[in-house]
## 1
Amino acid sequence: ASRVTVPEFVSFKASGRKISMLTAYDYSMAALLDGAGIEAILVGDSMSMVVQGHDTTLPVTLDQMIYHAEMVGRAVQHALVIVDMPFPTNLLGVHRAIENASRIIKETRCQAVKLEGGAEQADVIAGLVSAGIPVMAHVGLRPQSVHTMGGYKVQRDAERLIHDALSAQEAGAFSVLLECIPAPLAAEITSKLRVPTIGIGAGNQCDGQVLVLHDLLGLTHGYVPRFVKQYAHLQQTIADAVVAYREDVRSGQFPGPEQQFDK
Ligand code: KIV
Ligand code: NA
């Protein structure tokens, strides 16, 4: 199958095909997700937390995002791949935003960028779109503004959130991600927009869903938000495998006859 394109992704809304999206940060995981037939993969700046071990998404750099987007891009045959613009690469004016986003598109096999912001980022969204760079807007809880918002909280300012989503669409965003907003409000925004909404902690009336891969797989260290559903418990699986290996090495059971060369 060929790559999912941005227009195809948009058309899933009208055809009622729910969109599944997950994050990936490297080749082997991206290949697995793509092989499983997911519509979209996000190289999220959540990488800052789940891969790099920082306690916010703020420290990850553009060069680091590009390095990981290259790995994901090399793995993917089918999914639409979207890359987060890390803080503060979309906040330095339209010209700098185009410079930064175009590096992502030129240096990786990824097709679109995502940036946090709605109404107050409309000029940047419009600038990127006019440069031929598709943009997914991210409204609601915006983790890059954690210090302003005072933590990771459900966002309830309906008037502002509706305005953000509509402004992003009018500026040319091909999709709007809704993070941590009440389900009825996410449903209302979804019905008001022509472009697909992708929800995380935003109920099941969005046009699609996204989760952080490590949360879904049970690989996250520490706090897992309430909106996550864990479909596997790989931390335990991995720990069990490593303990079994350690015990086999200690007892001389590994390597056994099948794992060694007799001559
Ligand atoms: O960086 C990320 O993983 C995200 C998701 C929370 C959607 O933006
Ligand atoms: Na993000």
## 2
Amino acid sequence: MLSDAEKAAVQSLWAKASGNVNAIGAEALERLFESFPQTKTYFSHFDLSHGSHDLQVHGGKVLGAIGEATKHLDNLESALSKLSDLHAYNLRVDPGNFKLLSHAIQVTFASHFRTEFDATAQAAWDKFLSYVSAILTSKYR
Ligand code: HEM
């Protein structure tokens, strides 16, 4: 699990990002789709053009869920239980894609929060996002 210092690093960066979830979320998705085009196959019903309403809304949902998870760091599994059901039973997203999204989120943070998202903060976020991903893919079989 995350150490107290890692929890603090996750939460303090979130405090910076939380005011801008749609834009940051949309950018993370855009980076995901540009760098790893195979991930677009799950979103054929979306308009994925730069700055689209769909990207903003979905980016806001994804990042919002991550922000909510930062408030439940001692209880991530139950906090993410519904989303875990959705991704495993309904969406059946290939688990490998979670690493790609986690990467895109980190690059987006680095470009927005150059000073705050230092190596320590990134390591904490990488660990946190890998827990989130593990939970969202835990019910696949
Ligand atoms: C839907 C979060 C990873 C594909 C959602 C929703 C949230 C969410 C909050 C909306 C649920 C609702 O409307 O009730 C997350 C988080 C992720 C993650 C926190 C990892 C950190 C992924 C990945 C993919 C993916 C890697 C595929 C590349 C989808 C799809 C939907 C969805 C296709 C449904 C979109 C729609 O039709 O509205 N996700 N997600 N998710 N997610 Fe994820």
## 3
Amino acid sequence: PTILAIESSCDDTSAAVIKDGKILANIVATQAVHEKYGGVVPELASRAHEQNIIPVVSQALLTANITKSELNAVAFTRGPGLLGALLVGCSFAKSFALGLNIPVIEVNHMQAHILAHFIDEPKPNFPFLCLTVSGGHTQIVLVKNYLEMQVLGQTTDDAVGEAFDKSAKLLGLPYPGGPMLDRLAQTGNPNAYTFPIVNMPNYDFSFSGIKTSILNFIKNNTQANPNFIQEHLPDICASIQQALIQTLMKKLVSAAKETNIKEIAIAGGVSANSGLRQTVQDYAKKYQWQTYIPAFQYCTDNAAMIAMTAHFKYLAGEFTNQYASPDPRLKISL
Ligand code: ATP
Ligand code: FE
């Protein structure tokens, strides 16, 4: 099948075309409008999606060299995400499909982050564990099949991407802070400082406490030396990054042990983090894991992963209809 897929859950407007499981185009328009606010402003995101969606879809079809009449279905992200942002993609997809008289497919954004692993080789073997780490989620997922997944544990407050972004903000780094903190950490000493993170029961996480510990750290150290942060920025970034990564890895290791699964994947925006990518590879040697780390373009939000998921849903005959509406809190488990 040939499918057009739309992603509009947060601040990226994206369209992709997939033909028989192969991605032919993946166009992403990022929204610069949020930079000056230091975070995503939902209302502005919706408006930018509204402006971007037609050019992005046109570009995707042009790049794929596919005409509208060749499409077999239109897919969209139903959730989780920002309601107003999701509405743009959902309404567009339904209208487009109605005009062409073809079916619509709804996709769960978190499931799609995981299925991004099936775009390129090497592909994980079932069952595998996926550490999904993004701006809104932190989950350890048992992936039994393409469309059969179980969340083993997740964050009870902030997502790890949020922890990266908020830590960066406290250090005075510009938005989006995660990638910037990563870059600075690369030249720092990860053992320079300690930032304790609470150990939650089972496979759950809690990252909201790190903000307070960073604030206290800044207060204590800038009293004697007001330039302390600027002078030690790489070491501070590396230490914060290490604390976050160690917390993730600890749970991932115990999940791998208890499920006896050695196929391990990471997904979501934070899987672009160089420290996490390296650590996962190091642990692969230590624990004889087969690890799967997505290409950078498929870590953060993109419609290619929505298209890949839609491809599997098409083959499984899972379609929705014109009554479909977004669900900002859509869950991954059945
Ligand atoms: P969700 O997928 O949970 O709905 P989202 O779509 O907003 O949330 P993604 O686009 O998957 O999230 O990921 C964005 C997050 O990834 C941001 O928090 C960003 O800071 C973080 N991120 C991206 N690159 C890096 C990096 N190199 N190091 C650390 N964090 C990063
Ligand atoms: Fe995402």
